[in-house]
Structure formats: C-alpha cells, structure tokens
Specification:
The complex is a heterodimer of chains A (347) and B (247). Chain A has 347 residues and is an alpha+beta fold. Chain A is built from eight helices and 21 strands. Chain A has two domains: 233 residues, Rossmann fold (3-Layer(aba) Sandwich), CATH 3.40.50.300; 107 residues, Nucleic acid-binding proteins (OB fold (Dihydrolipoamide Acetyltransferase, E2P)). In chain A, the strands form four sheets. A six-stranded mixed β-sheet of chain A has the order 7-8-9-3-10-11, sandwiched between helices. Chain B has 247 residues and is mainly α. Classes of the chains: A alpha+beta (347), B mainly alpha (247). At the A-B interface, strand 7 and helix 4 of A face helix 6 and helix 7 of B.
Chain lengths: 347, 247
C-alpha cells in the first residue's frame, strides 16, 4: 500500500541557515508518528511545512499521492485537509466550545453539523461543556476542545505541535494515552512533535529523532531504544554508558568484564575497537555473580534504584535495580550483563 | 470684569425671518452630526480595508496601505481640507467640475469636500488601529483557522476581525470623538455647522461669551454621550477572559 504522507528530501532554510536538511520519511494510513528532538532541531518547522505555513526550499511533500508542496509550489493550507493542534491550543476566545468544534464544518447542514459537534465532544468527553467559553476551561479541557476542533472536519492527516507541553506531568501522561486512544479509534493518521521521549514512546508507532535539521532515525520506539542507528540517537534516547570493547567474533565483543555475544550480527571486523552501549536494564544485579562493581551513586526512583556503578577499570555504568535492593554507596555488589542486543559504534 | 450675561439671547429673534438664535445652533448641530457620521462610516470601512492590507502576506498591498497612512497622517488636516475644496475640484474632468462648482449649492459642495477630507484623514488612523488589533492576536489564531479549512478571507472575517475590533473599541472611540471635533474645520470653507453658527451668533448679537459657552456645552454633551454609548457597546461585546477579564 502506498504511504499516505511522503516527505522526499525536504529542505528548508531561514536566512541561509538550513533548518531542515534533506529529510525523507513515509507514514502509512492510520499510523501515529512522533518527531522527537531538542528545541531548535527543526521539528516544528517540519510540521509547518506539512501544514502549508512554510514554503519548501527543496524536495517535495505528497499527501495521498498528490504533490502538495515543492519549491515554488505551495498548495494553500486551507485546501490540504490537514488538521492541526497547537501548543497554546489557539481556541477562538470569542466562540463557545460547540462553535469552536463546529468551526470547520461549514459545508454541512445544521442538523448534520450539530450531530458531528455532539459526536466529537463525546469522543473527547466534554459533552457537558458545549456552551462554555475557552477561558472557563482548564488547560487539559482546552486541549481536548482543540483536538475535537481539529478532528471534526475529518482531516486526512492530523498534526500535533507539542500538544501537551503546557500541561502538568500527570495530566500530560493521562492525556497522551487518551489522545492515542482517540486517534486510533478514529483511524486518524497523525504526526506529533515533542521533546519528551516518554510522550513520544507512549503515543507513537514510529518515532523520528531529529538533530540539527537532520532526521537521525525513523523507527519504532522499540527499535530506537534497542537498535539506535547512530551514536547521537543512542545517547539521546534512554540512558546508558559507552564502554570500550574489541570485536572478537561476527556477533561477539570482548569487554573488560568478559566476552558477550549478540543475537544479531555486528557490522565490524574482528579486532576493531568499538564502544558498546550498556543500558541500565542491561546491567542486572546478581548476588551470586563473581563480577562485582562499587556503588558510586544512587537515585531512588520509586519501584527501582538507578545505581551508578564503577567497574574495576574505573569505567562507570548505570544499573536499574529493583528498589528492595538497597545498597550503600561504597558497597561492592554482584552484577551480570544481559546483552542480547549489542549496540556498538566505532571508536 | 463687567460683563452682563444674557442667557435669553438664544430665544431672541435673529432678525432674519422668524428664526431665533437657538435655531441656528440646532441647524449647526445637525450639520456637524451629518458631516461626522458620514465621514466616520467611510473612514471605518476604508480604514478597516487598509488595516487588513497592512497585515496581509506579500509586499505590494501592505506597501500601498503604508504609503496611504504616511501621506494622510503627515499632512495637517486643514491643508488637506483646502486641497479637497480649492485644488482638487480644478483637476476634475470638465463635467464633474461644472457640477461641483455650479450645479451643487455651496453648502453641498462644502459638505462633500469636508466629508471626503475627514474620511480619508481618519481612515489612516483607523487603519493603524485595525492593524495593531490584528497583530495583537496570537499567531496561532490564523493558523488554527487555516488548518480547519478556512481561506485567508474567511479567517479575517470569522476569526481575526471579530477579535481585533473588540480589542480596539477604546482607541476607535477616540477617533470617533475626534471626527466630531475635527468637523469644526468645515466652518473655514463656509459650511454652517456648529462652530460657524456660533461665530455667526457672536457677530450678529455681540453676545460672544454666551454663544461660545453654549457651543462648548453642546460639543461636550455630544461627546460625552457618544463616549458613554461606546463604552456600553464595549461592555456588551467584551469577550470574557480577554482584555481585562480574569484568565
């Protein structure tokens, strides 16, 4: 099946400075993607290009096979059937909730319009507030209205620009799950921009990691975490430490603490010097292990501790350990490495 | 000071027909209102169009509107009035010229000149207020309207202008009052509005102080009523939570 949305070698620049550089990805109908990156990496600009608020410098964007943007051609935003949800909600303050949601439904008759508004408000759980004005709503409610407004005209594609970043942490987590549920239920194809990886992992089928205008990797959250394509992605996603090692076989490396073999082949010559990524969940606490490390630091995280451990060579690694294993700093504890997915980068 | 105030003067005969002086003031007030209202309607429409033009994407339309504002804001009102009354008619096509100078009665041609003058002058000021009103809105508002399928025109009509006009009611009220006060320049080209009638009363009756006192009171009451009316309008259309309301 053809992709619903295709970006082909898209580039954009402000005042000669590249903001998006040669970016390509595809999104299938019904998929939810996240663009993830620190602020200033160009992720919001990508959304604005797809929405039609920015012209392209290079490449093209296709929606449902139709070219909607290319250098010198910009299909007007209002004709693209691309909905958008904004960081600051951008509700219309002079209209009540029902009028906001019904705003994009001009083509419909009165009855149909009412029914659609009612349905959308039901979907976002705000039926009781149809007559309220935006200023009377909480942040979470406003964002739900914004979502209903964007979904009401049945866009081909929905864009969400940091939709939860103005909300507190609890609400953010709850709402991101809720929104994913709503989007999936509606069969909506969507792209969200965020700088919060928990949010990206919770929402998305595909995540694109961006850095300085480059798309570093476009993959499922699981792949990003376990098979990062670059050192930047490995560093940016999740936690961990790089440990020096030597390739000792097609699927094996030798670390200072012994030889480990991956389930998948490694793309390096035997004898090559590499850095291996050790995730905190790769380092398992095991009282019976002969290998020990000294506790250098610990952070209590509720159900677990994040220990900073020092190996005999002085190399430090992180270990995630269930929190009933409460060890003092300076204590030596037994550990074992579980490296099913070896992630190695040339040194 | 030894001045004998005589407030009965307004009820005395002017010596022209059966008119009393008060009739002159009533007629003058009528012209003042006729000039100001007509000029205001035109200024509001033209100024809104220009204000929108200044906020549009692209270069040509904003540049035209900006040039307009600079021209009409930087030339004194009185100079503009004399241009419209004495200079511009001479450059009209022949038939229009004859119509303006000969067929129309003098009061009508003076009325047209002063209405055009005040309307174009005030439009420049209205333009600036409409522009700032639009620019004061969060940028997401127009993006949000475009994203649900509204064209640029519809976005202005249904999202930007309804909010911008509410914001700028207070400064627009000032312009509205100004146009009533500025209409007094019409007396210099012979239109018998309130100020001209006041001067005429002063000259005919020699009761200068009474005449100008009454004119002052009329202008004051007129403007106070308009201001009260406008603040009622402002309250009526205010968006709760926006502009002074608690968020």
């Amino acid at each position: 099946m053809d992709a619903l949305l295709q970006l082909n070698a898209v580039s954009q620049a402000y005042a000669g400075k590249p903001v998006i550089d040669n970016m390509s990805f595809q999104l299938a109908e019904g998929e939810i993607a996240c663009l993830l990156g620190s602020s200033g990496c160009g992720k919001t600009t990508v959304l604005r290009c797809i929405a039609g608020f920015e012209p392209l410098r290079g490449g093209d964007i296709r929606l449902n096979g139709e070219r909607i943007a290319a250098p010198g051609y910009n299909k007007p935003a209002h004709l693209r059937a691309v909905g958008m949800v904004f960081q600051d909600y951008a509700l219309f303050p002079h209209l009540d909730v029902a009028a906001n949601v019904g705003f994009g439904l001009r083509g419909l008759g009165d009855g149909e319009r009412k029914a659609r508004i009612g349905l959308m408000l039901e979907v976002v759980g705000l039926s009781a507030l149809a007559g309220a004005y935006p200023h009377e709503l909480s942040g979470g409610q406003q964002q739900r209205v914004a979502l209903a407004r964007a979904l009401a005209p049945r866009p081909r594609l929905l864009l969400l620009d940091e939709p939860f970043s103005n909300l507190d942490v609890d609400l953010r987590q709850r709402l991101s799950h809720e929104v994913r549920g709503i989007l999936k239920e509606q069969g909506m194809t969507a792209i969200m921009v965020t700088h919060d990886q928990q949010e990206a992992f919770a929402m998305a089928d595909k995540v694109g990691v961006m850095h300085h205008g480059h798309l570093q990797q476009w993959a499922s959250p699981y792949q990003l975490y376990h098979e990062p394509a670059s050192r930047y992605v490995a560093d940016f996603i999740g936690q961990g430490a790089f440990v020096p090692a030597v390739i000792s076989g097609p699927q094996c490396v030798t670390l200072e603490v012994g030889e480990y073999c991956s389930l998948t082949p490694l793309a390096y010559q035997v004898g090559a010097q590499v850095d291996v990524l050790l995730r905190p969940d790769d380092v398992v606490h095991d009282d019976h292990s002969e290998l020990t490390a000294v506790v250098k630091g610990k952070v209590f995280m509720g159900s677990e501790f994040m220990y900073t451990l020092q190996l005999p060579s002085g190399q430090q690694v992180l270990a995630q350990v269930p929190s009933h294993h409460n060890h003092a700093i300076g204590e030596a504890i037994g550990i074992r490495l579980e490296l099913d997915h070896l992630i190695a980068f040339a040194r | 000071m030894n001045y004998n105030w005589d407030w009965n003067i307004f009820f005395k005969s002017t010596g022209i027909g059966s008119e009393i002086y008060l009739d002159w003031f009533v007629s003058g007030l009528g012209w003042t209102i006729a000039v100001a209202l007509m000029a205001w309607i035109i200024a509001l429409l033209l100024g809104s169009v220009l204000g929108v033009m200044r906020t549009l994407p692209g270069k040509v339309l904003p540049a035209i509107a900006t040039a307009y504002v600079e021209l009409f804001r930087n030339v004194p009102l009185l100079v503009q009035l004399f241009m419209w009354y004495f200079v511009v008619p001479d450059y009209l096509p022949e038939p229009l010229q004859i119509w303006f100078k000969q067929d129309l009665n003098p009061a009508t041609s003076a009325y047209i000149s002063v209405v055009v003058c005040l309307a174009l002058f005030t439009a420049a000021r209205v333009c600036e207020q409409v522009r700032t009103g639009i620019q004061a809105l969060p940028r997401g508002q127009s993006a949000a309207a475009l994203a649900v399928g509204f064209s640029i025109g519809q976005t202005y009509r249904h999202v930007l202008l309804p909010q911008a006009f509410r914001i700028i009611i207070p400064p627009l009220t000032s312009e509205f009052l100004n146009i009533f006060k500025n209409s007094s320049v019409a007396s210099l080209i012979g239109l018998m509005e309130l100020l001209a009638q006041t001067k005429q009363t002063a000259e005919f009756s020699a009761n200068i102080f009474e005449a100008f006192t009454l004119a002052t009171v009329i202008y004051f009451v007129l403007n106070m009523s308009l201001m009260t009316l406008m603040s009622l309008v402002e309250k009526k259309v205010r968006i709760p939570g926006m502009m002074g309301g608690a968020k």
